[in-house]
Amino acid sequence: MGAVQQVSEAEFQKEVLEAPVPVVVDFFAVWCGPCRLITPILDDLSKTYDGKVKFVKVDIDDAPGIAERFAVANVPTLVAFKAGEEADRRVGAAPKPALEGWVKSFV
Hints:
Elements: E1 5-6, H1 9-17, E2 23-28, H2 33-48, E3 54-59, H3 64-69, E4 77-82, E5 85-91, H4 96-104
Parallel strand pairs: 1-3, 2-3
Antiparallel strand pairs: 2-4, 4-5
């Protein structure tokens, strides 16, 4: 069963860049309202795409180095990685159909 896991700066290389499947990284902050709005959507998508796409969260306040490395200036920012490289990104909250269509575009 898919689940969105939070990763730290120390885990990012292994969990995201070395993952065998595409990874969606949700760069978020606990104080961000729109971030909270998309959390249940990403939880649902993680179950739908279990085994095909991995979903992780990175708290920009706990992992500022990763946020800076990937030029995350606003939250939420969703970044898709394939084979360790950034494949696409989305900034801001969106409804489930839009986010699912985005995920399907790189599966």
